[in-house]
């Protein structure tokens, strides 16, 4: 059990470090709401302030309870991750997936505590259609959830007691 906690925590720290370093670079080098084109017609680096959840959900300045709500939600998610590591998720893929989710949750939680919002900077688009901006923490969370779903559907018996 200790190995699961250590492995997930180490992966989470790598994700947290990459997320925070990338966001600090964005904050220091790109003005808010500014950006530059990386791949014409497909990908920009931007500087967006997101008070809402993933992909801009509930990103509304008139809502005052967002930071408290999302900080509490992240703390509950972190608790659930450690609970799952204790008994339920024992295979290496699940441990890795939970490490990714934990690192992403910590990355966005750090932003919310420091700034009151999350820094997003990856902008994928086609013509006039833009996917909501996101960051490395969001990628890690989505990858972790995707891995969990994939392995729980493909190998459901390996996750039962």
TrEMBL record:
It comes from the Bacteria. The chain crosses the membrane at residues 63-85, 92-109, 129-155. Pathway: Protein modification; lipoprotein biosynthesis (signal peptide cleavage). GO terms for biological process: proteolysis. The keyword Hydrolase applies. GO terms for cellular component: plasma membrane. NCBIfam families: lspA (TIGR00077). This is Lipoprotein signal peptidase. It comes from Desulfobaculum bizertense DSM 18034.
